[in-house]
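Predict the holo structure. Ligand: glutathione.
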Amino acid sequence: MAARYTLVVGTKRFSSWSLRPWLALKMAKLPFEEIGIALRKPDTKDQIKQHSPSGKIPLLKIEDGPCVESIWDSLAICETLAERHPDAKLWPADAAARAQARCVVAEMHSGFPDVRSILPMDIGARHPTPELGDAVQAQTARIIAIWEAALAAHGSGGGFLFGNFSIADAFYAPVVTRFETYGISLPERSQAYAQQILALAAMQEWRAAAAAERAS
Ligand SMILES: N[C@@H](CCC(=O)N[C@@H](CS)C(=O)NCC(=O)O)C(=O)O
């Protein structure tokens, strides 16, 4: 029997970290259940602690026969899915492309702090472009350089960063929405890539759920 997956996610409007594994699961067509936790509430910490030893979400619960395990980091979840489902090709098949994809995912996972804080994810919303200091401008330029280089080398094979959808796209999808929300202009190829990500049925599903949260 297939393992049962439950993904614990935060408020869809804000939780950029949650969007990554959620999108990877959807794009890999892996069925899963969801537990949603409202962020920025007085009881958020307590709610998260009921699931996650790190006090952070997302977290993937895997129930496989008698074994139950929890994976509590967005990259660890994506790596675990790639390992358990090689047919989903969540990493590029080519070793050199895979190494590059891992580099850009690592950059996203551990970097761009000013983009995160000055351009927080607010999916579907439009806000005036804030004052972009030197750090945000440098980090934005680096993200665009990553996209341009990956798309130039691999994009013709499917329009994603490494051709077909990969974990790299899952990791940069929240940034795509930040650039849309704050009106950050992109070169043509990156703009086409951003549009392709935003048009994914899964992204629209997440966005609709975020809009429903906002209305409730
Ligand atoms: N490195 C973690 C970071 C996850 C993270 O920072 N999650 C935020 C929500 S998006 C969180 O759980 N914050 C706790 C809180 O809001 O109390 C990952 O990649 O999953």
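DSSP finds nine helices and four strands in the chain. The pocket of glutathione is lined by residues 10, 15, 17-18, 39, 44-45, 48, 56-58, 73-75 (CB under 6 Å).
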